Amino acid sequence: MKLMDLHIHTKASDGNFSPTAIVRAAKEANLSAISITDHDTMDGVDEALEAGKKYGIEVIRGVEFSCDVDDEEIHILGYFFHRPGKELFSVLETLKKKRYNRAERIIKKLNSLNIELNMDDVLKFVGNPLFIGRPHIALAMVERKIVRNPSEAFDEYLCIGKAAYEPRDNGLEPKKVIDLIKENKGLVSLAHPGYITDDNVTLGLIEYGIHALEVYHVSHDEEMIEKYTAMARNNGLYITGGSDYHGHNDDRPLLGKMSIPYEYLKDIKEAF
After folding, report:
1. Full-prediction pTM beyond 0.85?
2. Can you state the percent helix, strand and coil of the chain, rounding each to 5?
3. Residues of the chain with CATH 1.10.150.650
4. CB 191 within 8 A of CB 64
5. What Rg, from alpha-carbon coordinates, does the chain have?
6. 92-158 sits in which CATH class?
7. 170, 95 contact by CB (below 8 A)
8. Tens of pLDDT along the chain (272 residues)?
9. Which homologous superfamily does the CATH classification assign to the domain defined by 3-83+177-271?
10. 58-69/33-36 β-pairing
Protein backbone atom coordinates (compact mmCIF):
# COMPACT_ATOMS: atom_id res chain seq x y z
CA MET A 1 0.00 0.00 0.00
CA LYS A 2 1.24 3.47 -0.90
CA LEU A 3 1.53 5.72 2.17
CA MET A 4 2.03 9.42 2.78
CA ASP A 5 2.79 11.89 5.58
CA LEU A 6 1.17 15.29 5.16
CA HIS A 7 2.47 17.13 8.24
CA ILE A 8 6.24 17.64 8.37
CA HIS A 9 8.46 20.50 9.57
CA THR A 10 11.98 21.36 8.42
CA LYS A 11 14.76 23.77 9.32
CA ALA A 12 12.82 26.42 7.44
CA SER A 13 10.76 26.73 10.64
CA ASP A 14 11.36 24.78 13.85
CA GLY A 15 12.39 21.36 12.52
CA ASN A 16 15.84 19.84 12.91
CA PHE A 17 16.52 18.75 9.34
CA SER A 18 16.81 20.33 5.91
CA PRO A 19 14.08 19.76 3.32
CA THR A 20 16.45 17.55 1.33
CA ALA A 21 17.19 15.42 4.38
CA ILE A 22 13.47 15.07 5.04
CA VAL A 23 12.78 13.87 1.50
CA ARG A 24 15.65 11.40 1.72
CA ALA A 25 14.28 10.11 5.03
CA ALA A 26 10.83 9.80 3.45
CA LYS A 27 12.35 7.60 0.75
CA GLU A 28 14.00 5.42 3.38
CA ALA A 29 10.65 5.18 5.21
CA ASN A 30 9.00 3.93 2.00
CA LEU A 31 6.63 6.86 1.76
CA SER A 32 5.18 7.76 -1.63
CA ALA A 33 4.20 11.35 -0.84
CA ILE A 34 4.86 14.00 1.79
CA SER A 35 3.97 17.61 2.46
CA ILE A 36 6.29 20.18 3.95
CA THR A 37 4.10 22.20 6.33
CA ASP A 38 6.43 24.59 8.11
CA HIS A 39 4.98 27.17 10.48
CA ASP A 40 4.09 30.42 8.71
CA THR A 41 6.63 29.91 5.92
CA MET A 42 7.10 28.05 2.64
CA ASP A 43 10.83 28.73 2.42
CA GLY A 44 11.69 25.01 2.45
CA VAL A 45 9.21 23.90 -0.20
CA ASP A 46 11.20 24.55 -3.38
CA GLU A 47 14.21 22.62 -2.07
CA ALA A 48 11.94 19.75 -1.11
CA LEU A 49 10.33 19.73 -4.56
CA GLU A 50 13.75 19.42 -6.20
CA ALA A 51 14.77 16.66 -3.80
CA GLY A 52 11.49 14.91 -4.54
CA LYS A 53 12.44 14.68 -8.21
CA LYS A 54 15.78 13.14 -7.26
CA TYR A 55 14.40 10.57 -4.81
CA GLY A 56 11.11 9.81 -6.53
CA ILE A 57 8.93 11.25 -3.75
CA GLU A 58 5.81 13.30 -4.48
CA VAL A 59 6.07 16.56 -2.54
CA ILE A 60 2.98 18.67 -1.93
CA ARG A 61 3.40 22.36 -1.15
CA GLY A 62 2.14 23.14 2.32
CA VAL A 63 2.16 25.59 5.22
CA GLU A 64 0.82 25.65 8.78
CA PHE A 65 -0.73 28.91 9.95
CA SER A 66 -1.20 29.81 13.62
CA CYS A 67 -4.12 31.84 14.93
CA ASP A 68 -6.35 32.06 17.99
CA VAL A 69 -10.04 31.78 18.82
CA ASP A 70 -10.72 33.05 22.32
CA ASP A 71 -8.26 31.02 24.45
CA GLU A 72 -7.85 28.27 21.85
CA GLU A 73 -4.69 28.08 19.75
CA ILE A 74 -5.69 27.06 16.25
CA HIS A 75 -3.41 25.67 13.55
CA ILE A 76 -4.64 25.58 9.98
CA LEU A 77 -2.89 23.63 7.24
CA GLY A 78 -2.87 24.79 3.64
CA TYR A 79 -2.01 22.42 0.80
CA PHE A 80 -1.29 23.76 -2.67
CA PHE A 81 -1.14 21.61 -5.79
CA HIS A 82 -0.07 24.66 -7.80
CA ARG A 83 2.23 27.48 -6.78
CA PRO A 84 0.25 30.04 -4.73
CA GLY A 85 0.16 33.72 -5.63
CA LYS A 86 2.16 36.73 -4.45
CA GLU A 87 -0.40 37.80 -1.85
CA LEU A 88 0.10 34.64 0.19
CA PHE A 89 3.88 35.03 0.14
CA SER A 90 3.48 38.67 1.19
CA VAL A 91 1.47 37.55 4.22
CA LEU A 92 4.17 34.98 5.08
CA GLU A 93 6.90 37.64 4.89
CA THR A 94 4.97 39.81 7.32
CA LEU A 95 4.56 36.85 9.69
CA LYS A 96 8.33 36.29 9.74
CA LYS A 97 8.93 39.87 10.87
CA LYS A 98 6.28 39.59 13.56
CA ARG A 99 7.77 36.31 14.80
CA TYR A 100 11.16 37.98 15.17
CA ASN A 101 9.62 40.88 17.08
CA ARG A 102 7.73 38.48 19.32
CA ALA A 103 10.96 36.62 20.10
CA GLU A 104 12.57 39.92 21.10
CA ARG A 105 9.69 40.62 23.47
CA ILE A 106 9.94 37.15 25.03
CA ILE A 107 13.66 37.59 25.61
CA LYS A 108 13.01 40.97 27.20
CA LYS A 109 10.50 39.36 29.58
CA LEU A 110 13.00 36.64 30.48
CA ASN A 111 15.60 39.32 31.18
CA SER A 112 13.13 41.07 33.48
CA LEU A 113 13.01 37.79 35.44
CA ASN A 114 16.81 38.00 35.87
CA ILE A 115 17.34 35.30 33.24
CA GLU A 116 20.36 36.02 31.08
CA LEU A 117 19.51 35.26 27.45
CA ASN A 118 20.00 37.23 24.26
CA MET A 119 19.10 36.92 20.59
CA ASP A 120 22.52 35.54 19.65
CA ASP A 121 21.93 32.65 22.08
CA VAL A 122 18.69 31.86 20.25
CA LEU A 123 19.94 32.31 16.69
CA LYS A 124 22.40 29.43 17.17
CA PHE A 125 19.41 27.09 17.10
CA VAL A 126 17.66 28.66 14.14
CA GLY A 127 17.91 26.85 10.81
CA ASN A 128 16.29 29.74 8.95
CA PRO A 129 17.49 33.15 10.19
CA LEU A 130 14.20 34.63 9.03
CA PHE A 131 12.17 32.35 11.29
CA ILE A 132 12.30 32.29 15.08
CA GLY A 133 9.86 30.34 17.23
CA ARG A 134 9.43 29.57 20.90
CA PRO A 135 11.08 26.14 20.47
CA HIS A 136 14.31 27.91 19.49
CA ILE A 137 14.14 30.02 22.64
CA ALA A 138 13.51 26.87 24.68
CA LEU A 139 16.60 25.19 23.20
CA ALA A 140 18.71 28.24 24.02
CA MET A 141 17.43 28.13 27.59
CA VAL A 142 18.49 24.49 27.86
CA GLU A 143 21.98 25.28 26.60
CA ARG A 144 22.30 28.09 29.13
CA LYS A 145 21.17 25.63 31.85
CA ILE A 146 18.19 27.80 32.71
CA VAL A 147 15.97 24.72 32.32
CA ARG A 148 16.64 21.00 31.99
CA ASN A 149 14.71 20.45 28.77
CA PRO A 150 12.47 22.30 26.27
CA SER A 151 9.29 21.05 27.94
CA GLU A 152 10.34 22.69 31.20
CA ALA A 153 10.98 25.97 29.35
CA PHE A 154 7.43 25.94 28.06
CA ASP A 155 5.84 24.74 31.28
CA GLU A 156 7.65 27.29 33.44
CA TYR A 157 8.04 30.31 31.16
CA LEU A 158 6.77 30.18 27.58
CA CYS A 159 3.22 28.79 27.68
CA ILE A 160 0.07 30.89 27.90
CA GLY A 161 -0.24 32.31 31.40
CA LYS A 162 3.47 32.02 32.21
CA ALA A 163 5.67 35.00 33.01
CA ALA A 164 7.56 35.11 29.69
CA TYR A 165 4.65 34.26 27.44
CA GLU A 166 4.04 36.77 24.69
CA PRO A 167 0.86 36.49 22.62
CA ARG A 168 1.02 36.30 18.86
CA ASP A 169 0.44 39.56 17.08
CA ASN A 170 0.06 38.22 13.55
CA GLY A 171 -3.31 39.77 12.83
CA LEU A 172 -4.64 36.50 11.48
CA GLU A 173 -8.10 35.27 12.30
CA PRO A 174 -9.13 31.75 11.20
CA LYS A 175 -11.60 33.07 8.61
CA LYS A 176 -8.87 35.21 7.05
CA VAL A 177 -6.51 32.23 6.87
CA ILE A 178 -9.20 30.00 5.36
CA ASP A 179 -10.07 32.63 2.75
CA LEU A 180 -6.39 33.23 1.93
CA ILE A 181 -5.77 29.54 1.26
CA LYS A 182 -8.93 29.24 -0.82
CA GLU A 183 -8.05 32.32 -2.86
CA ASN A 184 -4.83 30.51 -3.78
CA LYS A 185 -6.72 27.36 -4.83
CA GLY A 186 -5.48 25.45 -1.80
CA LEU A 187 -6.99 22.78 0.40
CA VAL A 188 -7.78 23.93 3.96
CA SER A 189 -7.35 21.35 6.74
CA LEU A 190 -7.75 21.93 10.47
CA ALA A 191 -4.60 20.60 12.14
CA HIS A 192 -4.80 18.27 15.17
CA PRO A 193 -8.37 19.13 16.24
CA GLY A 194 -7.79 17.03 19.35
CA TYR A 195 -5.81 19.94 20.78
CA ILE A 196 -8.94 22.09 20.69
CA THR A 197 -10.80 21.72 23.98
CA ASP A 198 -14.14 23.11 22.76
CA ASP A 199 -15.81 21.19 19.92
CA ASN A 200 -17.91 24.28 19.21
CA VAL A 201 -14.74 25.99 18.00
CA THR A 202 -14.08 23.10 15.61
CA LEU A 203 -17.68 23.15 14.38
CA GLY A 204 -17.41 26.91 13.87
CA LEU A 205 -14.34 26.42 11.69
CA ILE A 206 -16.24 23.85 9.67
CA GLU A 207 -18.95 26.47 9.12
CA TYR A 208 -16.24 28.88 7.96
CA GLY A 209 -15.59 26.47 5.11
CA ILE A 210 -12.57 24.28 5.82
CA HIS A 211 -12.17 21.38 3.40
CA ALA A 212 -10.64 18.74 5.67
CA LEU A 213 -9.82 17.56 9.17
CA GLU A 214 -6.44 16.20 10.22
CA VAL A 215 -7.94 13.02 11.63
CA TYR A 216 -4.63 11.20 12.01
CA HIS A 217 -2.13 12.89 14.32
CA VAL A 218 0.26 11.74 17.02
CA SER A 219 -1.93 13.33 19.70
CA HIS A 220 -5.04 11.42 18.61
CA ASP A 221 -5.82 8.06 20.19
CA GLU A 222 -8.15 5.53 18.56
CA GLU A 223 -11.24 7.03 20.16
CA MET A 224 -10.35 10.48 18.83
CA ILE A 225 -9.60 9.11 15.38
CA GLU A 226 -13.07 7.55 15.31
CA LYS A 227 -14.60 10.80 16.56
CA TYR A 228 -12.94 13.00 13.93
CA THR A 229 -13.49 10.47 11.15
CA ALA A 230 -17.21 10.63 11.92
CA MET A 231 -17.10 14.42 12.13
CA ALA A 232 -15.37 14.62 8.75
CA ARG A 233 -17.80 12.26 7.08
CA ASN A 234 -20.88 13.89 8.63
CA ASN A 235 -19.75 17.27 7.31
CA GLY A 236 -18.51 16.19 3.90
CA LEU A 237 -14.85 16.87 4.71
CA TYR A 238 -11.71 15.22 3.42
CA ILE A 239 -9.33 13.42 5.78
CA THR A 240 -5.65 14.31 6.16
CA GLY A 241 -2.95 13.21 8.57
CA GLY A 242 0.73 12.97 9.33
CA SER A 243 3.44 12.70 11.92
CA ASP A 244 3.86 16.42 12.72
CA TYR A 245 7.52 15.48 12.51
CA HIS A 246 10.07 18.04 13.74
CA GLY A 247 13.08 15.81 14.33
CA HIS A 248 13.59 16.88 17.93
CA ASN A 249 14.19 14.34 20.65
CA ASP A 250 10.63 14.46 21.86
CA ASP A 251 7.63 12.16 21.95
CA ARG A 252 6.68 12.58 18.30
CA PRO A 253 6.90 9.45 16.17
CA LEU A 254 9.58 8.95 13.56
CA LEU A 255 8.90 10.04 10.03
CA GLY A 256 6.49 7.60 8.44
CA LYS A 257 5.24 6.13 11.71
CA MET A 258 2.07 8.24 11.47
CA SER A 259 1.27 7.77 7.80
CA ILE A 260 -2.03 7.41 6.00
CA PRO A 261 -3.07 5.68 2.76
CA TYR A 262 -2.34 7.53 -0.46
CA GLU A 263 -5.96 6.96 -1.45
CA TYR A 264 -6.94 9.94 0.71
CA LEU A 265 -4.78 12.20 -1.44
CA LYS A 266 -6.15 10.74 -4.67
CA ASP A 267 -9.66 11.77 -3.61
CA ILE A 268 -8.46 15.28 -2.78
CA LYS A 269 -6.52 15.76 -6.03
CA GLU A 270 -9.56 14.84 -8.08
CA ALA A 271 -11.28 17.89 -6.58
CA PHE A 272 -8.30 20.26 -6.63
Report:
1. yes
2. 45, 20, 40
3. 92-158
4. yes
5. 18
6. mainly alpha
7. yes
8. 899 999 999 999 988 899 999 999 999 999 999 999 999 999 999 999 999 999 999 999 999 999 888 778 899 999 999 999 999 999 999 998 998 999 999 999 999 999 999 999 999 988 877 788 898 999 999 999 999 999 999 999 999 899 999 987 777 899 999 999 999 999 999 999 999 999 999 999 999 999 999 999 988 999 999 999 999 999 999 999 999 998 865 554 578 778 899 999 988 988 88
9. Metal-dependent hydrolases (3.20.20.140)
10. parallel
If phi > 0 it is left, if psi is from -120 to 50 it is alpha, else beta; for residue 85 that is: beta
DSSP sequence for 180-223: HHHHTTPEEEE--GGG-S-HHHHHHHHHHT--EEEEE-TT--HH
Q: Are 62 and 78 in contact (CB under 8 A)?
A: yes
Which residue intervals of the chain bear CATH 3.20.20.140?
3-83+177-271
